[in-house]
Design a protein that fits this description.
By secondary structure, the protein is an alpha+beta fold. It has seven domains: 1-51; 55-152, 2-Layer Sandwich (Beta-Lactamase), CATH 3.30.450; 184-274, PAS domain (Beta-Lactamase, 2-Layer Sandwich); 281-403, 2-Layer Sandwich (Beta-Lactamase); 409-528, 2-Layer Sandwich (Beta-Lactamase); 530-621, Helix Hairpins; 623-773, Histidine kinase-like ATPase, C-terminal domain (Heat Shock Protein 90). It has 23 helices and 27 strands. Strands 2-1-5-4-3 form a five-stranded antiparallel β-sheet, sandwiched between helices. It has a five-stranded antiparallel β-sheet with strand order 7-6-10-9-8. A five-stranded antiparallel β-sheet has the order 12-11-15-14-13. Helix 18 (531-580) packs antiparallel against helix 19 and helix 21 runs antiparallel to helix 23. The protein is extended and about 220 Å long. Keywords: Kinase, Membrane, Phosphoprotein, Transferase, Transmembrane, Transmembrane helix, Two-component regulatory system.
Length: 777
């Protein structure tokens, strides 16, 4: 059994051995295959390592807990060779804080989703720029890891910045140049290699009256005839070509200066400027020169001009006449010395002892440093010439000859007139002084100096009025009044306004003065001694004051007497009324007539006393009015009815016309009634035959009452006095003879704010117009 067991065991061993051989062979083959794969992977790893080393971007793995895995060389370039954690990249030499913070935010976003990172960061220590790109790391990296690819872009970034800056500058310059060309006020264009227009500016489009630059280029519209001719010559000569051509611009014929400039690329640029104004100016200059020549021929002064070589280049007709030289001889352009010699032959030079030396001195004017030489030439025949020599910048000389013979004669005559004037001024009774516009004493007479006791030598220095004021003040009663004299001179010279007044001197004399502006801007100051007239005026003033005082005394006396007369008159009237009423018994027929006469006289005398009182009160301004509505038409009718019997008694026609616009006014009924009665009473009293008319009219503002008569009228010298108190003219009796009516009428009417106007013609009658305002004053 043992044998069988052993045999089975051997069989099993053989079976296992037979089975192990293929397994061993398989394992040997698998090991060899893995060894080859390992060698291949190592080769791939070396290749990938070499590629990574040569790649512009290098990787950095950042785990979810911010651990970093990167090459030491990359960490050194990032300024953090010892960094193990992401935060270590931001120390003093590492990444800029703002870049690290922005990158940290993007890492957090990329770790949570499919976000991509793209950023440029800067190393603080070296200033180098690195471009960072990346996203979530692929397996087998832990979830939340981020794989970054970091590339050094400093050189590229600087190159790109420089290129961008150059491009921007170029674009800006090109844009500015384009804007400049487009905004140029004159046409500009560019022609291509075929010499056709390729580019035009706005001024070109406007000049040819096209709608757009594209239209001009498409249609080939030329600015002037022969447009490409200059461009062809410019390309052939290789230089700018300038030409002048006529053109029609905006419907107007203009002259253009056209310039074509060849460009290196075979194109031709051009521009055109409008020289029409220049051509006009050139023509205007030529006409101006010709007009100046014509003007110089019409001048009274002679003029000649010499070139630097001393030959005559210009002369005018007055010079030929003054020098008595034929124009044909002057047209041959003689030399300076020859001209002087010819003038000497014609006796048109002054007589001198050494003519060659004198001529040499005048020849020296050509090179003289002085700007102007001026001389007075007195000729043998008595003519007086003023000669002005002006050296010219080019070495020439201009001479101007002015014939002053007539001026010298006039000056002599003026000197004679001045002497006559001085003699006349010195013998005037008035003191006369003339002050210039600057306040200086320009002219005076002897009496002016005597009035103020001024020294003649000091006055000859022509002092200013400010200097004269202290001298004036010492002679015046009121020294401060001297300042007024200064103000008078200023007013007359500056404001051109005259004034007058009086001055009192300390010695008792009085002067009337006047300051008058003169046409030449000066001021005339005159003084007249009015001492005697002042004394007479003072005496007349005292007499007038005495008369006024007497008038006031008379007025007060009349007023007082009127009051005193009123008391007995009242008693007489009262007793007469009692007698008339039968208190003392029945009266006989003659006694009643006597009492009636007494009452009528009392009434008349009372009215006269009232008028006198009103007149004296009005003279003092004490008139008091009662304001009420007055029916003017009714008032006029009432007054007319009361006056009609008196008019009929004198066989006068009495006509009353009440106008529609009469209306009513605000005023004192009694005063207005008395005013009308006074005027009517005067008209009836002074009219012996004919008629008396009373007419009323009015408008919304005023009412008018016209009273006219056919009496004898008043002489013109009497018409101004009819309104004076106690004045009468002609032979009249009753109240009119006292001269109270018209003065009282004017007084009452003016108190109402109205006016009284009288007009009279001797032999034809008198009319009085009363105007009253509607409202109260």
């Amino acid at each position: 059994m043992v044998t069988i067991f052993n045999l089975r065991l051997e069989i099993v061993a053989l079976a296992l051995a037979a089975l192990w051989v293929p397994i061993a062979a398989f394992l040997a083959w698998r090991g060899a295959s893995q060894s080859r794969q390992a060698r291949q992977l190592a080769g791939h790893a070396k290749a990938i390592g070499a590629l990574l080393a040569a790649a512009p971007s290098r990787p950095m793995l950042i785990t979810p807990d911010r651990e970093i895995d990167a090459e030491p060389a990359l960490l050194r370039e990032l300024g953090s060779p010892e960094a193990r954690h992401f935060a270590d990249l931001g120390h003093a030499d590492g990444l800029a804080p703002e870049d690290l913070a922005a990158l940290d935010s993007e890492l957090a976003a990329a770790a949570l989703g499919p976000g991509r990172i793209a950023r440029t960061v800067r190393v603080q220590s070296s200033g180098r720029l690195f471009e960072v790109r990346g996203g979530p790391a692929p397996p087998p990296s832990p979830p939340g890891s981020v794989l970054l690819w970091i590339a050094d872009c400093s050189t590229a970034e600087h190159s790109r910045a420089d290129t961008a800056a150059q491009l921007a500058a170029t674009q800006q310059a090109l844009g500015s140049l384009t804007l400049l060309i487009e905004a140029a006020p004159f046409p500009m264009w560019v022609r291509g290699g075929d010499l056709n227009l390729a580019l035009v500016n706005r001024a070109f489009v406007t000049a040819v009256e096209a709608d757009s630059a594209e239209e001009v280029v498409a249609r080939g519209i030329e600015l002037a005839d022969g447009g490409a001719e200059g461009a062809t010559r410019a390309l052939t000569d290789g230089a700018a070509i300038e030409r002048v051509r006529p053109a029609t611009i905006r419907g107007e014929r203009r002259t253009l200066r056209i310039v074509d400039v060849p460009l290196p690329n075979g194109a031709v640029a051009g521009y055109a400027t409008d020289i029409q104004e220049l051509e006009n100016a050139r023509g205007e200059l030529e006409r101006y020169v010709e007009s100046q020549r014509e003007l110089s021929d019409r001048m009274t002064a002679g003029a000649v001009q010499f070139d630097p070589d001393r030959t005559l280049s210009f002369y005018n007709r007055p010079f030929a006449i003054l020098s008595q030289i034929e124009p044909d001889w002057l047209d041959d352009a003689p030399e300076f010395d020859r001209l002087l010699e010819r003038m000497r032959e014609n006796h048109r030079l002054p007589e001198v002892r050494d003519f060659p030396e004198w001529k040499a001195e005048r020849r020296g004017w050509f090179t003289s440093a002085e700007e102007v030489h001026e001389e007075e030439w007195i000729l043998a025949n008595g003519d007086h010439l003023r000669v002005v020599g002006q050296p010219l910048p080019d070495g020439g000389l201009r001479l101007i000859f002015e014939d002053r013979t007539e001026q010298v004669r006039l000056s002599s005559a003026r000197d004679t007139l001045l002497r006559v004037r001085t003699a006349t001024f010195d013998n005037l009774f008035e003191g006369v002084a003339v002050f210039a516009s600057d306040g200086r004493l320009y002219l005076w007479n002897r009496r002016f100096g005597d009035f103020w006791n001024l020294d003649e030598q000091w006055l000859a220095e022509h002092p200013r009025v400010d200097e004269l004021v202290p001298a004036f003040a010492g002679r015046l009663v009121n020294p401060t009044a001297a300042a007024r004299l200064r103000e008078l001179v200023r007013t007359a010279t500056t404001e051109r306004r005259g004034e007058q007044g009086r001055l009192s001197l300390a010695d008792g004399r009085h002067f009337a003065f006047a300051a008058v502006p003169l046409p030449d801007g000066n001021a005339l100051f005159t003084m007249v001694d009015v001492t005697d007239s002042s004394r007479i005026e003072a005496a007349l003033r005292e007499r007038a004051e005495a008369l006024e005082q007497a008038d006031r005394v008379r007025t007060d006396f009349v007023a007082n007497m009127s009051y005193e007369l009123r008391t007995p008159l009242t008693s007489i009237g009262g007793f007469a009324e009692m007698l008339n009423d039968g208190y003392a018994g029945d009266l006989s027929g003659s006694a009643k007539d006597y009492v009636a006469a007494i009452l009528e006289s009392v009434s008349r005398l009372s009215r006269l006393i009232d008028n006198v009182l009103d007149l004296t009160q009005g003279a003092k301004g004490d008139v008091v009015l009662e304001r009420e509505r007055v029916d003017l038409a009714g008032l006029v009718r009432s007054v007319a009815d009361g006056m009609e019997p008196t008019a009929k008694a004198k066989r006068l026609r009495f006509k009353v016309v009440i106008g529609e616009g009469t209306g009513s006014i605000q005023g004192d009924h009694r005063r207005l009634r008395e005013s009308l009665e006074h005027v009517l009473r005067n008209a009836i009293a002074y009219t012996d035959k004919g008629e008396v008319r009373l007419v009323t009219r009015g408008d919304p503002a005023n009412a008018e009452i016209l009273i006219s008569d056919t009496g004898p009228g008043l002489a013109p010298e009497h018409q101004t006095r009819v309104f004076e108190r106690f004045t009468r003219f002609g032979e009249s009796r009753g109240e009119a003879a006292l001269g109270l009516g018209l003065p009282l009428t004017r007084q009452f009417v003016e108190a109402h704010g109205g006016t009284v106007q009288l007009s009279s013609t001797p032999g034809q009658g008198t009319s009085v117009l009363i105007t009253l305002p509607r409202g109260s004053r």
